[in-house]
Specification:
Strand content: 5-15%
CATH topology of the largest domain: Heat Shock Protein 90
Strand order of the largest sheet: 2-4-5-7-6
Number of strands: 7
Distance between the termini: 52 Å
Shape: rod-shaped
CATH superfamily of the largest domain: Histidine kinase-like ATPase, C-terminal domain
Radius of gyration: 38 Å
Length: 323
């Protein structure tokens, strides 16, 4: 419309002005589409940008000759209009080249941004796959240790206490079934995690009998908070290992959960013999694997802390609550 108005102001009739504007825009639109599609198929590097400019100049030249041929063919009997076309060829060429350059630059930028987004997506996908693989590997390294101990206990009970052995087999089956159904990155409520943890504790109590006591305390407002599935089992297993194996008599493992600011705080405590060095290994693979898992899930290294005071070893976990 703007081009038709300008042509009319230059003395061209409205009919010819609209025809000129329509033909010009159609030809340039086809040329712009050609540039757009060609650069989507093959995007030259910055070093080869000269070829883009040459391609724009070639298309502009074709457009100008196409316009001249079409418009002269349509209105060639009008000498004044023919002269007008000849006088405006340079102006038309400059306008066309500017349009082609703008289309090429915008297409180049759009394809560049799209490629960067695709590259970032592929990178994120690859990182996620690597993270999932590492999380899965951590679990696979933890589970056999517990499984072998349970099977050894079942074997020992089978001869002398077959009922206890059958009970332990059923408990082990329930525990492993719940473990298989969950993936390493899924979140559960604290209440669900403690329910699954109780299956593990029931198995351990069959193994150790009256020597193992557990106390679980949880604030009412903390039971609906989320944490990664199967996070507590290796921590409690670590507490049992360094509580029972290094002491004689009964021990009590305490698990205390509370809400603090926007975090779920869980403390697991166990006694140990301060005259030995075994508690120093309490931050071995069991806890280091949990710390690594928390880092992979939350990108923080401060979510698991261990402390020793007199004969009590404490593992504190902080789980940020995402919105």
């Amino acid at each position: 419309m703007a081009q038709a108005v300008v042509l009319n102001q230059s003395g061209i009739t409205w009919g010819i002005a609209f025809a000129d504007a329509g033909a010009t825009q159609l030809i340039f639109a086809l040329a712009g589409y050609t540039i757009n599609m060609s650069m989507r198929s093959y995007q030259p590097s910055v070093r080869n940008s000269i070829y883009v400019l040459l391609w724009c100049m070639a298309l502009t030249t074709l457009c100008i000759f196409a316009q001249r041929w079409l418009l002269i063919d349509m209105f060639g009997e009008n000498d004044a209009y023919g002269a007008f076309i000849s006088k405006t060829m340079i102006l038309r060429g400059g306008f066309g080249l500017l349009m082609m350059d703008m289309i090429a630059i915008l297409t180049w930028f759009w394809v560049y941004v799209d490629d960067r987004q695709e590259s970032e997506k592929r990178k994120d996908d690859a990182m996620q796959l690597a993270k999932d693989a590492e999380l899965s590997n951590l679990r696979q390294q933890l589970q056999p240790h517990f499984l072998f101990n349970s099977l050894n206990s079942i074997s020992a009970l089978a001869g002398s206490h077959p009922e206890e052995a059958r009970k332990m087999i059923q408990q082990l089956s329930d525990f492993l079934r719940g473990t298989i159904k969950k993936d390493d990155s899924s979140l559960l409520t604290l209440d669900e995690e403690l329910t699954h943890l109780q299956l593990y504790l029931d198995i351990e109590k069959v193994r150790f009998g009256h020597r193992l006591n557990t106390v679980i305390e949880k604030q009412e407002e903390s039971i609906s908070l989320a944490l990664p599935s199967l996070l507590l089992q290796p921590i409690v297993e670590n507490a049992i290992k360094f509580g029972l194996y290094d002491t004689i008599g009964e021990i009590t493992i305490s698990i205390i959960a509370r809400k603090e600011n926007n975090n779920l705080m869980i403390e697991v405590t166990n006694p140990f013999d301060p005259t030995t060095a075994i508690p120093q290994r309490g931050t071995g693979f069991g806890l280091s694997s949990v710390k690594r898992r928390l880092f992979l899930l939350y990108s923080r290294n401060d979510l698991l802390v261990t402390t020793q005071a007199e004969n009590i070893f404490t593992t504190t976990i902080k789980i940020p609550q995402l919105a």
